[in-house]
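Sample A.
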Amino acid sequence: MEKVWGREHLPPPFTSESDNRVGEIWFDPPAELPQLLVKYLFTSEKLSVQVHPDDARAPDGARGKEECWFILDAEPGARLAIGLRQSLSEEELRAAALDGSIEDLLTWHAVEPGDFFYLPAGTIHAIGPGISLIEVQQNSDITYRLYDYGRPRKLHLDDALRVARRGSYVRRERDIVPLTGERTLIDGPHFRLDRIDGEPSEAAAQRYRGSLLLVPVDGDYAVAGEAVPAGSCALVEDIAHITCTRGKALITQPS
Protein backbone atom coordinates (compact mmCIF):
# COMPACT_ATOMS: atom_id res chain seq x y z
CA MET A 1 0.00 0.00 0.00
CA GLU A 2 1.46 3.35 -1.07
CA LYS A 3 2.12 5.88 1.72
CA VAL A 4 3.88 9.25 1.70
CA TRP A 5 6.09 8.01 4.54
CA GLY A 6 6.87 4.62 2.92
CA ARG A 7 9.92 3.35 1.07
CA GLU A 8 10.81 2.89 -2.59
CA HIS A 9 13.27 0.11 -1.69
CA LEU A 10 12.07 -2.49 0.81
CA PRO A 11 14.42 -4.49 3.05
CA PRO A 12 14.85 -8.29 2.67
CA PRO A 13 12.98 -10.57 2.32
CA PHE A 14 10.86 -8.11 0.33
CA THR A 15 12.15 -7.16 -3.12
CA SER A 16 9.86 -4.33 -4.26
CA GLU A 17 11.65 -1.49 -6.05
CA SER A 18 9.48 1.12 -7.74
CA ASP A 19 8.74 4.83 -7.95
CA ASN A 20 5.95 4.33 -5.40
CA ARG A 21 6.57 4.51 -1.68
CA VAL A 22 5.34 1.28 -0.14
CA GLY A 23 4.45 1.87 3.49
CA GLU A 24 2.33 -1.16 4.38
CA ILE A 25 1.75 -4.75 3.36
CA TRP A 26 -1.55 -6.11 4.72
CA PHE A 27 -2.74 -9.67 5.03
CA ASP A 28 -6.51 -9.88 4.72
CA PRO A 29 -7.90 -11.61 7.81
CA PRO A 30 -9.13 -15.12 7.02
CA ALA A 31 -12.79 -15.93 7.58
CA GLU A 32 -11.76 -18.14 10.51
CA LEU A 33 -10.07 -15.23 12.35
CA PRO A 34 -11.79 -11.99 11.32
CA GLN A 35 -10.81 -10.24 14.57
CA LEU A 36 -7.07 -9.99 13.76
CA LEU A 37 -5.05 -8.01 11.23
CA VAL A 38 -1.34 -8.54 10.55
CA LYS A 39 0.70 -6.11 8.49
CA TYR A 40 4.25 -4.97 7.81
CA LEU A 41 5.22 -1.28 8.01
CA PHE A 42 8.23 0.35 6.34
CA THR A 43 9.09 3.98 7.12
CA SER A 44 11.31 6.57 5.45
CA GLU A 45 9.61 9.53 7.13
CA LYS A 46 7.72 10.13 10.36
CA LEU A 47 4.17 8.84 10.62
CA SER A 48 1.51 11.13 12.04
CA VAL A 49 0.99 11.41 15.79
CA GLN A 50 -2.20 9.42 16.26
CA VAL A 51 -4.44 7.44 18.56
CA HIS A 52 -7.05 4.68 18.23
CA PRO A 53 -10.25 4.13 20.25
CA ASP A 54 -11.08 1.11 22.37
CA ASP A 55 -14.17 -1.00 21.71
CA ALA A 56 -16.38 1.14 23.95
CA ARG A 57 -15.44 4.39 22.17
CA ALA A 58 -15.33 3.14 18.59
CA PRO A 59 -18.16 4.54 16.43
CA ASP A 60 -21.24 2.60 15.34
CA GLY A 61 -20.34 -0.57 17.19
CA ALA A 62 -17.06 -1.01 15.28
CA ARG A 63 -14.03 -2.65 16.87
CA GLY A 64 -11.48 -0.58 18.68
CA LYS A 65 -7.81 -0.98 17.89
CA GLU A 66 -5.27 -2.41 20.29
CA GLU A 67 -1.99 -3.16 18.57
CA CYS A 68 1.61 -4.15 19.06
CA TRP A 69 4.88 -3.75 17.17
CA PHE A 70 7.70 -6.26 16.67
CA ILE A 71 10.76 -4.51 15.24
CA LEU A 72 12.37 -6.28 12.27
CA ASP A 73 14.95 -3.71 11.24
CA ALA A 74 16.02 -0.26 12.39
CA GLU A 75 18.52 2.22 11.04
CA PRO A 76 20.95 3.80 13.55
CA GLY A 77 19.11 6.34 15.67
CA ALA A 78 15.64 5.13 14.66
CA ARG A 79 12.94 5.91 17.22
CA LEU A 80 9.25 5.56 17.87
CA ALA A 81 7.02 7.38 20.32
CA ILE A 82 4.52 5.87 22.75
CA GLY A 83 2.58 7.95 25.24
CA LEU A 84 3.36 11.29 26.83
CA ARG A 85 6.30 12.26 29.02
CA GLN A 86 3.89 13.85 31.48
CA SER A 87 0.14 14.00 32.02
CA LEU A 88 -1.64 16.81 30.18
CA SER A 89 -5.10 18.30 30.44
CA GLU A 90 -7.34 18.08 27.40
CA GLU A 91 -6.77 21.78 26.72
CA GLU A 92 -2.99 21.41 26.98
CA LEU A 93 -3.01 18.42 24.62
CA ARG A 94 -5.16 20.26 22.06
CA ALA A 95 -2.83 23.27 22.14
CA ALA A 96 0.24 21.05 21.73
CA ALA A 97 -1.32 19.29 18.74
CA LEU A 98 -2.18 22.61 17.09
CA ASP A 99 1.24 24.23 17.52
CA GLY A 100 3.33 21.06 16.92
CA SER A 101 4.91 20.97 20.37
CA ILE A 102 3.25 17.57 20.93
CA GLU A 103 6.23 15.99 19.18
CA ASP A 104 8.49 17.09 22.06
CA LEU A 105 5.99 15.94 24.69
CA LEU A 106 6.00 12.32 23.51
CA THR A 107 8.11 9.56 25.06
CA TRP A 108 10.53 8.49 22.32
CA HIS A 109 12.19 5.06 22.41
CA ALA A 110 15.31 4.04 20.50
CA VAL A 111 14.62 0.74 18.73
CA GLU A 112 16.61 -2.28 17.60
CA PRO A 113 15.62 -5.50 15.78
CA GLY A 114 13.74 -7.81 18.12
CA ASP A 115 12.25 -5.04 20.28
CA PHE A 116 8.58 -5.33 21.12
CA PHE A 117 5.99 -2.72 22.13
CA TYR A 118 2.37 -3.20 23.18
CA LEU A 119 -0.03 -0.27 22.73
CA PRO A 120 -3.36 -0.40 24.55
CA ALA A 121 -6.13 1.43 22.71
CA GLY A 122 -6.06 5.13 23.54
CA THR A 123 -2.24 5.32 23.63
CA ILE A 124 -0.87 8.30 21.69
CA HIS A 125 1.92 7.14 19.39
CA ALA A 126 4.09 7.82 16.35
CA ILE A 127 6.69 5.92 14.34
CA GLY A 128 9.87 7.58 13.11
CA PRO A 129 11.80 6.96 9.88
CA GLY A 130 14.13 4.03 9.20
CA ILE A 131 12.02 1.29 10.79
CA SER A 132 10.55 -1.99 9.51
CA LEU A 133 8.13 -3.76 11.81
CA ILE A 134 5.36 -6.31 12.10
CA GLU A 135 2.11 -4.96 13.50
CA VAL A 136 -0.49 -7.27 15.03
CA GLN A 137 -3.77 -5.56 15.88
CA GLN A 138 -7.48 -5.80 16.28
CA ASN A 139 -8.98 -5.73 12.80
CA SER A 140 -9.92 -2.05 12.70
CA ASP A 141 -8.92 0.90 10.53
CA ILE A 142 -10.03 3.67 12.90
CA THR A 143 -7.21 6.19 13.27
CA TYR A 144 -7.48 9.70 14.71
CA ARG A 145 -4.61 12.05 13.78
CA LEU A 146 -3.45 14.61 16.31
CA TYR A 147 -0.53 16.05 14.33
CA ASP A 148 0.92 15.40 10.86
CA TYR A 149 4.01 17.61 10.50
CA GLY A 150 2.26 20.05 8.17
CA ARG A 151 1.14 17.47 5.61
CA PRO A 152 -2.17 18.33 3.91
CA ARG A 153 -4.15 15.51 5.53
CA LYS A 154 -7.18 15.81 7.76
CA LEU A 155 -6.71 15.91 11.53
CA HIS A 156 -9.28 14.50 13.96
CA LEU A 157 -8.65 16.53 17.10
CA ASP A 158 -12.07 16.23 18.73
CA ASP A 159 -12.23 12.45 18.27
CA ALA A 160 -8.58 12.02 19.27
CA LEU A 161 -9.00 14.03 22.45
CA ARG A 162 -12.15 12.05 23.28
CA VAL A 163 -10.32 8.68 23.26
CA ALA A 164 -6.72 9.54 24.15
CA ARG A 165 -5.03 8.49 27.36
CA ARG A 166 -3.31 11.66 28.45
CA GLY A 167 -0.92 10.05 30.94
CA SER A 168 2.61 8.76 30.51
CA TYR A 169 3.45 5.35 29.05
CA VAL A 170 5.50 2.99 31.20
CA ARG A 171 7.29 0.26 29.28
CA ARG A 172 6.43 -3.14 30.74
CA GLU A 173 8.99 -5.75 31.74
CA ARG A 174 7.38 -8.09 29.20
CA ASP A 175 8.25 -5.61 26.42
CA ILE A 176 11.96 -6.35 26.95
CA VAL A 177 12.38 -9.47 24.83
CA PRO A 178 15.46 -11.75 25.03
CA LEU A 179 17.06 -12.52 21.67
CA THR A 180 16.40 -16.25 21.96
CA GLY A 181 13.83 -18.52 23.53
CA GLU A 182 10.07 -18.84 23.32
CA ARG A 183 8.27 -15.88 24.85
CA THR A 184 4.66 -14.90 25.49
CA LEU A 185 4.46 -11.28 24.39
CA ILE A 186 0.75 -10.62 24.97
CA ASP A 187 -2.05 -12.54 26.62
CA GLY A 188 -4.62 -9.79 26.59
CA PRO A 189 -8.35 -9.23 26.27
CA HIS A 190 -8.33 -9.24 22.45
CA PHE A 191 -5.51 -11.49 21.30
CA ARG A 192 -2.53 -13.51 22.44
CA LEU A 193 0.88 -13.36 20.77
CA ASP A 194 3.99 -15.48 21.23
CA ARG A 195 7.43 -15.40 19.69
CA ILE A 196 8.74 -18.90 19.05
CA ASP A 197 12.14 -20.34 18.16
CA GLY A 198 11.78 -23.20 15.71
CA GLU A 199 8.70 -25.32 16.30
CA PRO A 200 6.19 -24.35 19.01
CA SER A 201 6.76 -25.91 22.41
CA GLU A 202 4.28 -28.14 24.19
CA ALA A 203 3.43 -25.19 26.44
CA ALA A 204 2.53 -23.11 23.38
CA ALA A 205 0.44 -25.97 22.04
CA GLN A 206 -1.55 -25.96 25.27
CA ARG A 207 -2.26 -22.23 24.95
CA TYR A 208 -3.09 -22.22 21.24
CA ARG A 209 -6.13 -24.37 20.56
CA GLY A 210 -7.83 -24.12 17.17
CA SER A 211 -6.95 -21.78 14.31
CA LEU A 212 -4.06 -19.33 14.60
CA LEU A 213 -1.81 -17.17 12.43
CA LEU A 214 1.88 -17.86 11.79
CA VAL A 215 4.17 -14.95 10.86
CA PRO A 216 7.74 -16.16 10.21
CA VAL A 217 10.52 -13.69 10.99
CA ASP A 218 13.24 -15.90 9.49
CA GLY A 219 14.00 -19.56 8.88
CA ASP A 220 12.31 -22.44 7.08
CA TYR A 221 8.76 -22.66 8.43
CA ALA A 222 6.11 -24.85 6.85
CA VAL A 223 2.45 -25.54 7.59
CA ALA A 224 1.19 -29.03 6.73
CA GLY A 225 4.19 -29.42 4.43
CA GLU A 226 3.72 -26.10 2.59
CA ALA A 227 6.57 -23.59 2.92
CA VAL A 228 5.74 -20.32 4.68
CA PRO A 229 8.65 -17.93 4.10
CA ALA A 230 9.60 -14.87 6.09
CA GLY A 231 7.58 -11.88 4.98
CA SER A 232 4.33 -13.85 4.79
CA CYS A 233 1.46 -14.78 7.07
CA ALA A 234 -0.33 -18.14 7.12
CA LEU A 235 -3.54 -19.47 8.59
CA VAL A 236 -2.85 -22.59 10.67
CA GLU A 237 -5.75 -24.88 11.54
CA ASP A 238 -3.79 -26.73 14.23
CA ILE A 239 -0.52 -25.68 15.86
CA ALA A 240 0.75 -29.24 15.41
CA HIS A 241 0.89 -28.56 11.65
CA ILE A 242 3.77 -26.08 12.10
CA THR A 243 7.21 -27.53 11.33
CA CYS A 244 10.61 -25.86 11.35
CA THR A 245 14.24 -26.86 11.83
CA ARG A 246 15.60 -23.32 12.14
CA GLY A 247 13.97 -19.94 12.56
CA LYS A 248 11.92 -17.48 14.58
CA ALA A 249 8.27 -16.61 14.16
CA LEU A 250 5.27 -14.96 15.75
CA ILE A 251 2.07 -16.88 16.41
CA THR A 252 -1.22 -15.20 17.33
CA GLN A 253 -4.93 -15.83 17.77
CA PRO A 254 -7.93 -14.06 19.33
CA SER A 255 -8.26 -14.41 23.09
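Sample B.
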Amino acid sequence: MRTRGDLATGYLFVLPVVVSLAVFLIGPILYALYISFHHFSFLAPDQATFAGLDNYLKLFKDPRFIRALGNTSLYSLGVVPIQIAIALMLALIVDAKIKGKTLFRVVYFLPTVTSTVAVSVMFMYLFKNDGLVNFVLSKLSIPTFDWFNSLTFALPAVMMMAIWTTVGQFMVIYLAGLQDIPQELYEAAEVDGATPWQRLRFITWPMLKPTTFFILIMSIIGTFQVFDQMYVISKGEGGPQDRTLTVVFYLYRAAFKDFDMGYASAMAFALFLIILLLTIIQRKFFKEETN
Protein backbone atom coordinates (compact mmCIF):
# COMPACT_ATOMS: atom_id res chain seq x y z
CA MET A 1 0.00 0.00 0.00
CA ARG A 2 1.35 3.39 -0.99
CA THR A 3 2.02 5.93 1.71
CA ARG A 4 2.33 9.70 1.50
CA GLY A 5 6.07 9.27 1.85
CA ASP A 6 6.17 7.06 -1.22
CA LEU A 7 4.16 9.61 -3.22
CA ALA A 8 6.41 12.43 -2.04
CA THR A 9 9.49 10.43 -3.07
CA GLY A 10 7.99 9.81 -6.51
CA TYR A 11 7.18 13.49 -6.98
CA LEU A 12 10.71 14.43 -5.94
CA PHE A 13 12.15 12.09 -8.58
CA VAL A 14 10.09 13.65 -11.38
CA LEU A 15 10.49 17.22 -10.10
CA PRO A 16 13.81 17.91 -11.93
CA VAL A 17 12.28 16.82 -15.24
CA VAL A 18 9.13 18.88 -14.69
CA VAL A 19 11.18 21.95 -13.74
CA SER A 20 13.47 21.49 -16.77
CA LEU A 21 10.49 21.18 -19.13
CA ALA A 22 8.82 24.21 -17.59
CA VAL A 23 11.93 26.40 -17.70
CA PHE A 24 13.50 25.32 -20.99
CA LEU A 25 10.50 24.21 -23.10
CA ILE A 26 7.02 25.18 -21.95
CA GLY A 27 8.06 28.59 -20.62
CA PRO A 28 9.86 29.71 -23.80
CA ILE A 29 6.98 28.44 -25.97
CA LEU A 30 4.42 30.44 -23.99
CA TYR A 31 6.67 33.49 -24.02
CA ALA A 32 7.15 33.18 -27.79
CA LEU A 33 3.36 32.96 -28.18
CA TYR A 34 3.03 36.09 -26.08
CA ILE A 35 5.52 38.15 -28.09
CA SER A 36 4.01 36.94 -31.39
CA PHE A 37 1.13 39.31 -30.60
CA HIS A 38 3.50 42.24 -30.03
CA HIS A 39 5.89 44.45 -31.92
CA PHE A 40 8.87 43.25 -29.97
CA SER A 41 12.64 43.53 -30.14
CA PHE A 42 15.17 42.27 -27.61
CA LEU A 43 17.15 45.44 -28.28
CA ALA A 44 14.34 47.40 -26.65
CA PRO A 45 11.99 44.99 -24.81
CA ASP A 46 10.53 47.80 -22.69
CA GLN A 47 9.21 49.45 -25.86
CA ALA A 48 7.14 46.46 -26.97
CA THR A 49 3.63 47.33 -28.09
CA PHE A 50 0.58 45.13 -28.54
CA ALA A 51 0.03 44.26 -32.21
CA GLY A 52 -2.93 41.90 -32.05
CA LEU A 53 -3.02 39.74 -35.16
CA ASP A 54 -0.87 42.14 -37.21
CA ASN A 55 2.16 39.85 -37.22
CA TYR A 56 0.08 36.90 -38.40
CA LEU A 57 -1.75 38.92 -41.06
CA LYS A 58 1.58 40.25 -42.29
CA LEU A 59 2.58 36.69 -43.25
CA PHE A 60 -0.03 36.62 -46.02
CA LYS A 61 1.21 39.95 -47.42
CA ASP A 62 4.94 39.31 -47.16
CA PRO A 63 6.30 38.15 -50.56
CA ARG A 64 9.52 36.86 -48.98
CA PHE A 65 7.59 34.65 -46.57
CA ILE A 66 5.45 33.32 -49.42
CA ARG A 67 8.62 32.65 -51.40
CA ALA A 68 10.20 30.92 -48.37
CA LEU A 69 7.08 28.79 -47.82
CA GLY A 70 7.04 27.86 -51.52
CA ASN A 71 10.72 26.90 -51.45
CA THR A 72 10.20 24.85 -48.29
CA SER A 73 7.17 23.05 -49.76
CA LEU A 74 9.01 22.31 -53.00
CA TYR A 75 12.03 21.11 -51.03
CA SER A 76 9.81 18.79 -48.97
CA LEU A 77 7.99 17.44 -52.04
CA GLY A 78 11.30 16.69 -53.71
CA VAL A 79 13.14 15.19 -50.74
CA VAL A 80 10.53 13.19 -48.80
CA PRO A 81 9.35 10.62 -51.40
CA ILE A 82 12.85 9.99 -52.78
CA GLN A 83 14.21 9.76 -49.26
CA ILE A 84 11.63 7.14 -48.28
CA ALA A 85 12.04 5.11 -51.48
CA ILE A 86 15.85 4.96 -51.22
CA ALA A 87 15.73 4.23 -47.48
CA LEU A 88 13.37 1.28 -48.06
CA MET A 89 15.50 -0.03 -50.93
CA LEU A 90 18.69 0.15 -48.86
CA ALA A 91 16.97 -1.49 -45.89
CA LEU A 92 15.82 -4.38 -48.10
CA ILE A 93 19.36 -4.79 -49.44
CA VAL A 94 20.96 -4.71 -45.99
CA ASP A 95 18.31 -7.06 -44.57
CA ALA A 96 19.00 -9.63 -47.29
CA LYS A 97 21.37 -12.52 -46.72
CA ILE A 98 24.47 -10.97 -48.24
CA LYS A 99 28.08 -10.90 -47.15
CA GLY A 100 29.41 -7.79 -45.45
CA LYS A 101 26.01 -6.30 -44.67
CA THR A 102 27.40 -4.83 -41.43
CA LEU A 103 29.83 -2.81 -43.55
CA PHE A 104 26.96 -1.63 -45.77
CA ARG A 105 25.01 -0.48 -42.71
CA VAL A 106 27.96 1.59 -41.53
CA VAL A 107 28.59 3.08 -44.99
CA TYR A 108 24.94 4.02 -45.54
CA PHE A 109 24.54 5.44 -42.02
CA LEU A 110 27.83 7.36 -41.91
CA PRO A 111 26.51 10.55 -43.63
CA THR A 112 23.81 10.83 -40.96
CA VAL A 113 26.33 11.31 -38.15
CA THR A 114 28.52 13.67 -40.17
CA SER A 115 28.32 17.38 -39.37
CA THR A 116 25.79 19.14 -41.61
CA VAL A 117 28.13 22.10 -41.97
CA ALA A 118 30.99 19.82 -43.05
CA VAL A 119 28.72 18.06 -45.57
CA SER A 120 27.51 21.42 -46.91
CA VAL A 121 31.08 22.63 -47.44
CA MET A 122 31.95 19.35 -49.15
CA PHE A 123 28.99 19.66 -51.52
CA MET A 124 29.92 23.27 -52.27
CA TYR A 125 33.27 21.98 -53.57
CA LEU A 126 31.63 19.10 -55.45
CA PHE A 127 29.09 21.36 -57.19
CA LYS A 128 31.25 24.40 -57.90
CA ASN A 129 32.12 25.39 -61.48
CA ASP A 130 35.32 23.35 -61.60
CA GLY A 131 34.10 20.71 -59.14
CA LEU A 132 33.82 16.96 -59.52
CA VAL A 133 30.16 16.97 -60.62
CA ASN A 134 30.75 19.35 -63.51
CA PHE A 135 33.95 17.46 -64.42
CA VAL A 136 31.99 14.20 -64.76
CA LEU A 137 29.20 15.92 -66.70
CA SER A 138 31.68 17.48 -69.11
CA LYS A 139 33.30 14.08 -69.74
CA LEU A 140 29.83 12.72 -70.59
CA SER A 141 29.20 15.66 -72.93
CA ILE A 142 26.40 16.92 -70.67
CA PRO A 143 26.00 20.68 -70.07
CA THR A 144 27.51 21.89 -66.80
CA PHE A 145 25.99 24.40 -64.38
CA ASP A 146 26.98 26.88 -61.73
CA TRP A 147 24.79 24.88 -59.38
CA PHE A 148 24.49 26.95 -56.21
CA ASN A 149 24.34 30.24 -58.12
CA SER A 150 21.69 29.02 -60.54
CA LEU A 151 18.06 30.08 -60.14
CA THR A 152 16.98 26.69 -61.47
CA PHE A 153 19.43 24.25 -59.92
CA ALA A 154 20.35 25.75 -56.52
CA LEU A 155 17.43 24.17 -54.67
CA PRO A 156 17.67 20.75 -56.42
CA ALA A 157 21.38 20.61 -55.55
CA VAL A 158 20.54 21.12 -51.88
CA MET A 159 17.84 18.44 -52.19
CA MET A 160 20.44 15.94 -53.42
CA MET A 161 22.63 16.77 -50.46
CA ALA A 162 19.74 16.40 -48.00
CA ILE A 163 18.77 13.00 -49.39
CA TRP A 164 22.35 11.74 -49.19
CA THR A 165 22.84 12.91 -45.60
CA THR A 166 19.56 11.65 -44.09
CA VAL A 167 18.60 8.51 -45.97
CA GLY A 168 20.79 6.33 -43.71
CA GLN A 169 18.80 7.34 -40.63
CA PHE A 170 15.53 6.20 -42.17
CA MET A 171 17.18 3.07 -43.54
CA VAL A 172 17.97 2.01 -39.96
CA ILE A 173 14.34 2.62 -38.91
CA TYR A 174 13.06 0.61 -41.88
CA LEU A 175 15.55 -2.12 -41.04
CA ALA A 176 14.12 -2.35 -37.53
CA GLY A 177 10.61 -2.59 -39.03
CA LEU A 178 11.69 -5.35 -41.44
CA GLN A 179 13.21 -7.42 -38.67
CA ASP A 180 9.96 -7.15 -36.72
CA ILE A 181 7.94 -8.87 -39.50
CA PRO A 182 7.30 -12.55 -38.61
CA GLN A 183 9.32 -14.83 -40.91
CA GLU A 184 6.43 -17.31 -40.91
CA LEU A 185 4.53 -15.01 -43.27
CA TYR A 186 7.32 -15.14 -45.84
CA GLU A 187 7.68 -18.90 -45.46
CA ALA A 188 3.94 -19.43 -45.98
CA ALA A 189 3.95 -17.14 -49.02
CA GLU A 190 6.94 -18.96 -50.47
CA VAL A 191 5.18 -22.29 -50.05
CA ASP A 192 2.17 -20.84 -51.91
CA GLY A 193 4.47 -19.87 -54.78
CA ALA A 194 4.56 -16.10 -54.22
CA THR A 195 7.25 -14.27 -56.16
CA PRO A 196 9.67 -11.85 -54.43
CA TRP A 197 7.67 -8.91 -55.83
CA GLN A 198 4.41 -10.36 -54.47
CA ARG A 199 6.00 -10.91 -51.05
CA LEU A 200 7.17 -7.29 -51.07
CA ARG A 201 3.80 -5.95 -52.19
CA PHE A 202 1.45 -8.06 -50.07
CA ILE A 203 3.54 -8.73 -46.94
CA THR A 204 6.46 -6.34 -46.52
CA TRP A 205 4.81 -3.07 -47.54
CA PRO A 206 1.54 -3.56 -45.57
CA MET A 207 3.46 -4.64 -42.46
CA LEU A 208 5.71 -1.59 -42.77
CA LYS A 209 2.87 0.96 -42.86
CA PRO A 210 3.30 2.07 -39.19
CA THR A 211 7.05 2.44 -39.82
CA THR A 212 6.41 4.34 -43.05
CA PHE A 213 3.98 6.67 -41.29
CA PHE A 214 6.58 7.44 -38.61
CA ILE A 215 9.31 8.02 -41.21
CA LEU A 216 6.99 10.18 -43.33
CA ILE A 217 6.12 12.45 -40.41
CA MET A 218 9.74 12.72 -39.27
CA SER A 219 10.85 13.47 -42.82
CA ILE A 220 8.21 16.16 -43.34
CA ILE A 221 9.08 17.80 -40.02
CA GLY A 222 12.79 17.67 -40.90
CA THR A 223 12.33 19.16 -44.37
CA PHE A 224 10.06 21.95 -43.15
CA GLN A 225 12.62 22.85 -40.49
CA VAL A 226 15.62 22.89 -42.84
CA PHE A 227 18.02 25.71 -42.08
CA ASP A 228 21.72 24.93 -41.69
CA GLN A 229 22.35 23.59 -45.22
CA MET A 230 20.66 26.62 -46.77
CA TYR A 231 22.52 29.03 -44.50
CA VAL A 232 25.97 27.60 -45.25
CA ILE A 233 25.48 27.19 -49.00
CA SER A 234 23.94 30.64 -49.54
CA LYS A 235 26.43 32.27 -47.14
CA GLY A 236 23.58 33.47 -44.95
CA GLU A 237 21.72 35.26 -47.74
CA GLY A 238 19.23 32.70 -49.06
CA GLY A 239 20.31 33.38 -52.63
CA PRO A 240 20.38 33.40 -55.50
CA GLN A 241 17.32 35.69 -55.45
CA ASP A 242 15.83 33.89 -52.41
CA ARG A 243 15.82 30.52 -54.21
CA THR A 244 17.27 28.80 -51.11
CA LEU A 245 15.34 30.86 -48.57
CA THR A 246 13.24 28.58 -46.34
CA VAL A 247 10.76 29.39 -43.59
CA VAL A 248 13.16 28.69 -40.72
CA PHE A 249 15.93 30.57 -42.54
CA TYR A 250 13.65 33.59 -42.99
CA LEU A 251 12.54 33.25 -39.36
CA TYR A 252 16.19 33.41 -38.29
CA ARG A 253 16.80 36.52 -40.41
CA ALA A 254 13.68 38.23 -39.02
CA ALA A 255 14.66 37.46 -35.43
CA PHE A 256 18.44 37.95 -35.38
CA LYS A 257 19.12 40.31 -38.29
CA ASP A 258 16.02 42.47 -38.40
CA PHE A 259 15.41 41.98 -34.63
CA ASP A 260 11.68 41.69 -35.27
CA MET A 261 11.07 39.02 -32.65
CA GLY A 262 7.29 39.39 -32.74
CA TYR A 263 7.10 38.67 -36.46
CA ALA A 264 9.61 35.80 -36.16
CA SER A 265 7.53 34.23 -33.37
CA ALA A 266 4.36 34.52 -35.47
CA MET A 267 6.24 32.81 -38.31
CA ALA A 268 7.29 30.00 -35.96
CA PHE A 269 3.73 29.32 -34.83
CA ALA A 270 2.47 29.47 -38.41
CA LEU A 271 5.07 26.82 -39.31
CA PHE A 272 3.96 24.75 -36.30
CA LEU A 273 0.34 24.86 -37.49
CA ILE A 274 1.36 23.85 -41.04
CA ILE A 275 3.32 20.84 -39.75
CA LEU A 276 0.48 19.91 -37.38
CA LEU A 277 -2.05 20.06 -40.23
CA LEU A 278 0.14 17.89 -42.47
CA THR A 279 0.58 15.39 -39.63
CA ILE A 280 -3.19 15.16 -39.07
CA ILE A 281 -3.81 14.66 -42.80
CA GLN A 282 -1.19 11.91 -43.00
CA ARG A 283 -2.55 10.23 -39.88
CA LYS A 284 -6.06 10.23 -41.34
CA PHE A 285 -4.78 8.87 -44.67
CA PHE A 286 -2.81 6.03 -43.08
CA LYS A 287 -5.70 5.19 -40.74
CA GLU A 288 -8.05 4.86 -43.71
CA GLU A 289 -5.47 2.77 -45.57
CA THR A 290 -5.15 0.45 -42.56
CA ASN A 291 -8.92 0.08 -42.28
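B remarks: The longest helix spans residues 63-95. Residues 62-290 form a domain with the MetI-like fold fold (CATH 1.10.3720.10).
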